[in-house]
Amino acid sequence: MLRRFVSTMAVVLVLAFLAGCLGGGGEKRNVFDENEQTTIKVMFYDENSFFQQFGSLFISKFPNVDVEVVNVNALYGKGKYDEASFLKFIEDNQPDVLLLNASQYEKLSSGGKLYALDSLIEQDKYDIEGIHPGILQQLREKGGGKLYGLGPTFSSRALFYNADLFHLYGVELPRDSMSWEEVLELAKRFPAEGGENERVYGYSPETTGLYTPIDLANTIAETENLRYLTPDGSRTTLSGEAWRSVLETAASAVQSGAVYMPQAQRSEGSYTMQVYYSQDLFIAGRSAMTVRNSYFIQNVSDSQNYLDKAPLNWGIVTAPVNPNDRARSNDIRLNSIFAIRADTPNARAAWEFLKYISGEEFARVKSKAPLSGELLSRTAYNREQDGRSMEPFYKLEPGTSPTSLLENAPPSFYGLLYPIVNEELGSVVENKKPFDEAYRNIQARAESALQEAKKREEAEKSAEPNA
After folding, report:
1. Confidence band (pLDDT; 50, 70, 90) for 243?
2. Lower Cβ count inside 10 Å, N or C end of the chain?
3. For the chain, which residues make up each domain, given as ranges?
4. Distance between CA atoms of 264 and 254, rounded to whole angstroms?
5. What confidence score (pLDDT) does residue 34 get?
6. Architecture of the domain defined by 22-155+332-398
7. Which residues have CB under 8 Å from 464's CB, separation 6+?
8. Same fold: 22-155+332-398 with 157-211+260-329
9. How far is CA 216 from CA 21, 172, 181, 252, 253, in A?
């Protein structure tokens, strides 16, 4: 009897020990030992930028963890990146921490390649409440309901406006959640008279290079989640009402003279910072509105050191949205998601890295540094810039990741389509033909361009060795 009791107690103790080493669902509990020297391999673009952005702060906090950077430029620099080469890169290099974009994150999480973080978050009582809830929701949606990664930063854009120009011409200020059509209608209320080098424009694009009607149409279409081809790539979608509206809006805005359309004119002589800033019409005070990322604020501030003009009286509202979903913004994007490889032997140390770079301490330190075009996912630490709140950059929920305009398109399709759309919309802008006629021509010619692009693709495949 006594022997059976002792045997039973031994089993209980063993089970208790195992329970302490295992988490829910049979996962290893992974208790991090701060005294144990370990090494983790982290995917990043290059070693220098990694340590500048993340690594130096992390290893100062965890001196027992060495970090080896797996340079992904070796992958993307080959010029023939595809899903198969990406998976082979991971298999060959065995990084513990993966650097992913939204599409890669979704595919790897659904394929069982990533380590689920929910149990680790619960085990450590890790506070994720301060992270933008929309970003967490987006990560869970792409992870099939689970959280497989964290993004310490995100990119976003906002609509900048010149308050003085709006007051001067008696135009009401922009507001949050405007559609592109509404923004461009507002732009049309500014005078279109005057010489090209002196006049004011209602809206100017980010680029100072060549900008054409199709470029403006593409900007609108991306916001509205459109694409040029059907999901199977068999035909174009330009016959749809959504594309008609986009093309008509773009043609009307260009025709009105409200939109600045740079023609990629090169400056003669030396290209100084003064020239650089003066060529940006918004900074020069000649554009009422523009859509830019958060780093543009630094440009506006720095320009005062080079231009002999009064400081801009600028403001920001949310970037233009899809009129069918005004609570979301496709301009809020997670470009860098950090995740843990599912079969890594260093899951706990990798988790400490994710915890730290997504935590409050890291955000507090980074909030003191100049903006670099990225915002902190812990949005409470996105400090004001020039007395303006950064909230318009993240006020809305992130939209569903927009589908590429050219998804499933043959390689040469856009090169054939580009001059067609510009020619037809250009004829509308110049009053040579009505929009309806140009639109019908775009539809027919785009279908012909698609068939031609498919023929070229087939010919190229047939000409390849071992085709």
Report:
1. very high
2. N
3. 22-155+332-398, 157-211+260-329
4. 17
5. 67
6. 3-Layer(aba) Sandwich (3.40)
7. none
8. yes
9. 57, 23, 11, 11, 9
* Helix, strand, coil fractions of the chain, as percent rounded to 5: 45, 15, 40
Radius of gyration of the chain (CA): 27
- Average pLDDT estimate for 118-142: 95
CATH number (3.10.310.10, 3.30.457.10, 2.130.10.150, 3.40.190.10) of 157-211+260-329 reads 3.40.190.10
Q: Residues 106-126, buried b or exposed e (16+ Cβ, 10 A)?
A: bbbbeeebbbbbebbbeeeee
Question: Dmax over Cα atoms in the chain, in whole Å?
Answer: 105
User: 76 is written with which tokens?
Assistant: 């993307």
Task: State residue 461's pLDDT score.
Answer: 86
Q: Residue 26 pLDDT more than 60?
A: no
Distance of CA 176 to CAs 28, 228, 318, 385, 394, Å?
Answer: 47, 28, 5, 19, 11
Above pLDDT 90, what percent of the chain?
77
Number of helices (H) and strands (E), helices first, in the chain?
18, 12
More confident residue, 267 or 1: 267
**CA atoms 101, 107, 110, 116: torsion sign:** negative
Contact by Cβ (8 Å): 334, 135:
yes
Q: Looking at residues 430-445, what average pLDDT do you find? A: 97
- What is the C-alpha to C-alpha distance for residues 272 and 12, in angstroms, rounded to an integer? 76
| Residue 35 pLDDT greater than 50, yes or no | yes
pTM of the model: 0.88
| Distance (Å, whole) CA 75 – CA 89 | 7
C-alpha–C-alpha distance, residues 439 and 424, integer Å: 7
Binned at pLDDT 50, 70 and 90, residue 19 comes out as very low
- The candidate with the shortest Cα–Cα distance to 324, out of 424, 224, 411, 236, is 224
